[in-house]
Amino acid sequence: MKSKRLLEAFSHTEDVFLDASESYMPEKRVKKRRWTRLIPAVAALLCVAIVGTVLLNAPKASAKSLVLAAEYPKMAPYPSGILYQSEKAYDAWQDDMNRQRRQPEGYAAGLDAVFAGMLPALMGEETGENKVCSPLNLYMALAMLAEITAGETRTQLLTLLGQGSIEALRAQATAVWNANYRDDGALTSVLASSLWLNAGVSYEKDALQTLANSYFASTYQGEMGSDDYDQALQGWVNEQTGGLLQDAASRLHMKQEDVLMLMTTVRFQGKWARQFSKDNTYAQTFYAQSGAIERDFMHKRTQNNYYWAGQFAAVREIFDTSFGQSMWFFLPDEGVQPEALLSDPVFYRILYAPNDWEDQTGLFVNLAVPKFDISAEGDMADALKRLCVTDAFSPFAADFSPLCDQQAWVGGVTHAARVVIDEEGCTAVAFTAIPTAGAAPPPPDEVDFVLDRPFVFVITGMDNLPLFVGVVHNP
């Protein structure tokens, strides 16, 4: 089997990358790496605490009992090393990849507008602090919330998520999950979900089955408020996020009066198709809002597509063995705050339809990007209320009748995320501060692009859906 055959499978990879990829073929890497060695390391969690009027003298329960287990798709391992020589192994892997990618035409329609409407509220207008969130993580949690609510509570959630019926939302969420699922030893992209039920409450089994079938959510039941149940929840989160959010997970606790906890996580890890050399990493100045600071920058020269627009420029890099997964870096023009890009329609036009953007060109880009490890944690409740999701938070208006007959409402929405990049995992995504204003094009053949001031990054999954969005003020 020739190298060309593997390249033919990557139909979402732009032509500008193909020549360069010949030197990064799978047979060059004979050892399969464990998930924890892949870079960048990216994870997020979202916890929705649903409280209510629960009898506090409910019978004691075991620490954790599995009520319903979601079944994940089985994936053949990526054909590296000895497996690469096997036609059968390659065909099995490609069949599984094609199955996951083969979703209904137009399944992601409308999500560009949904995320464009949500992101400014989620990220806020405050400047100076690092920010990161997972739009797809929040989308899955809100879709699950819509499934277990009714009346105006559900209507508000459907409106925010751009769907007219729960059936349409269910079908879209299932397709989004499948399209972004990959766990084959080469690249990891998993959206995981679970429900943690109060043992003293009766629940509708049909609702739990729907969550398992359409949202791949497993259900557990135990004694709310017990240390054992908390540890079981925290252990599940750490397992799903590769231990990247241990501090945030340690702060997750269930109260005795909680009706349930709804958990969603995102785990993403992959290697860059074209890596930085550690020999080209050295300290230079990053101009943060608080003043100039010294940080380690990674450097390399690569052929890439360069995009320019009214108040920013952008470059993206694909992940090794990817079918569209990539990382974008958006560098605002001098004097433009990175948060302003999240309200710019052009930002989303380039992100969701990069091939249609006219102001782009392929050239050699001298990339420099600071190594960073950023995280953020906070309550999304106020942001969701600003987005007109209000009834779910009201003890008097919330309707959770599809799930249980208890009076219940959302008591909090905790979101935490972390992104780590280095030479192995953040290859050609370094952006240089180019002194171009407005929509000025770059030089004809080569451009310097250094991320030496606050910038925006986006990690995209299939069909350019945003898995993670971040603002780096201080790497």
| N-C termini distance | 43 Å
Instruction: Assign an overall shape.
Output: globular
Average of pLDDT: 82
CATH superfamily of the largest domain: Antithrombin, subunit I, domain 2
Q: Major beta sheet, specifics?
A: 9 strands, mixed
- Strand tally is 17
From the alpha-carbon coordinates, what is the Rg to the nearest angstrom? 23 Å
Structural class: alpha+beta
CATH arch. level architecture of the largest domain: 2-Layer Sandwich
User: What percent of residues adopt helix (DSSP H or I)?
Assistant: 25-40%
The CATH topology annotation of the largest domain reads as: Antithrombin, Chain I, domain 2
Low-confidence stretches: 1-38, 55-59, 425-439
> What's the CATH C level of the largest domain?
Alpha Beta
**Number of helical regions:** 13
**Can you write the helix and strand succession as a string?**
HHEEHHEHHHEEHEHHEEEEEHHEEHEEEE
- Strand proportion, as a percent range, falls in 25-35%
What is the domain total for the residues? 2
Your description of this structure?
By secondary structure, the chain is α+β, with helices and mostly antiparallel strands. It folds into 2 domains: 42-74 and 103-270 and 374-420, Antithrombin, subunit I, domain 2 (Antithrombin, Chain I, domain 2, 2-Layer Sandwich), CATH 3.30.497.10; 278-371 and 425-472, Roll (Alpha-1-antitrypsin, domain 1), CATH 2.30.39. It is built from 13 helices and 17 strands. It has helices at 3-9, 15-21, 87-101, 111-123, 135-147, 151-160, 166-179, 205-215, 227-240, 246-250, 338-341, 345-352, 381-386, and strands at 41-52, 65-68, 131-133, 182-183, 188-198, 217-222, 258-269, 281-288, 291-308, 312-318, 326-332, 360-370, 372-379, 408-421, 446-450, 455-460, 466-472. The strands form 2 sheets. Strands 3, 8, 9, 10, 11, 12, 15, 16 and 17 form a 9-stranded mixed beta sheet that branches. Strands 1, 2, 4, 5, 6, 7, 13 and 14 form an 8-stranded mixed beta sheet that branches. Strand 5, helix 8 and strand 6 form a beta-alpha-beta unit. Helix 5 runs antiparallel to helix 7 (166-179). The longest helix is centred in the first third of the chain and has 15 residues, at 87-101. It is globular. The two termini are 43 Å apart.
